[in-house]
Amino acid sequence: MENNLHIFNTLTRRKKKFQPINPPFVGMYVCGPTVYGDAHLGHARPAVTFDLVFRYLTYLGYKVRYVRNITDVGHLENDADEGEDKIAKKARLEKLEPMEVAQFYTNGYHRNMTQLNTLPPSIEPHASGHILEQIEMIREILSNGFAYESNGSVYFDVEAYSTKNHYGKLSGRVVEDLLSNTRELEGQSEKRNNADFALWKKASPEHIMRWNAEWSVGFPGWHLECSVMSTKYLGEEFDIHGGGLDLQFPHHECEIAQNKAASGKDAVRFWMHNNMITINGQKMGKSLGNFITLDDFFAGNHPLLEQAYAPMTVRFFMLQAHYRNPLDFSNSALQAAEKGLQRLMSAMQTLEKLQATNEDDSSFDVRALINNMYEALDDDFNTPVLIAHLFDAVKQINSAADGKAYFEANDLVYLKSTMNAVIFQILGLKATETKSNQTEKLGEVVDLLLKTRLQAKADKNWALSDKIRDELTALGFEIKDTKDGYEWKMVV
Question: What is the pLDDT of residues 266-282, one digit of tens each?
Answer without folding.
Answer: 999 999 999 999 887 77
